[in-house]
Amino acid sequence: MTLPELSIRRGDLDRDLEGILAVDALTFTNPWTRAMYEWEARRSDVSRLYVAHGPPAEAAPPLIAYCAVWVIYDELHINNLAVHPDWRRHGVARALLEVVLRDAADSGAHEATLEVRRSNLAALKLYEGLGFGVEGMRAGYYTQPDEDALVLWRRTAADAGDTSRSSSDRTDPAV
After folding, report:
1. Among the four residues 12, 80, 103, 136, which has the most C-beta atoms within 10 Å?
2. pLDDT, tens digit (0-9, with 9 covering 90-100), for 126-142
3. Candidate list 37, 50, 66, 127, residue with the active-site label
4. What is 7-159's CATH number, 3.40.50.1820, 1.10.3720.10, 3.40.630.30, 3.40.190.10?
């Protein structure tokens, strides 16, 4: 399967939360709760959600991926990225992240960071392809199962809008 026809937009909690929770349940062993997303959306002035919908269905296109981030001054922190299992490894995560990175750069955030499970090789490959590099480790960061997190940064301010270059959950996407 090639990259499907996607619709990527800023998320709306009232419209998208059920789809986000469904993708979370299929992706994470320790997903965020409804209350956590509600708090982020309603009480945080730095929180943003992005959603990707698949090809139009009879009723409405399904939510197939999402990304929850913070934009704090000149920095983007990617908190969660998840893709529905049926849509993984088809370019959905990359397409979604390209929109997120471009939007953050347009807001003045030219550096980006995230944590990822050390064992999540697919995610590491994705992030490295988008210009992220490993700069640290957080011991015992993840639970269920216990695992260290690698801390990745993308520090190429001049290339913030160019996601094609490469450098030598809470983000633990299955991508």
Report:
1. 80
2. 999 999 999 999 999 99
3. 127
4. 3.40.630.30
